[in-house]
Prior knowledge:
By secondary structure, the chain is of the alpha+beta class. Helix content is about 35%, strand content about 30%.
Amino acid sequence: FYIYFLIRENEIVYIGQTNNFVTRLKNHQKRITFDHYSVQPLECTLEEVKLLESQLILHHKPCENGNSK
């Protein structure tokens, strides 16, 4: 699995998880504006990666994940 961050003007605008980063990134390019990204490969279960993703979203509150700062 991967945890990834889409970044615009040095601000995290989206955090996600996937097992196919390339395809997921292409889908995001259609609806989210970002100028770069960071991706972290993980060796864990689906449940663990979902928990990590949720915790990161709660902490960073990226605007494209449906949160407001």
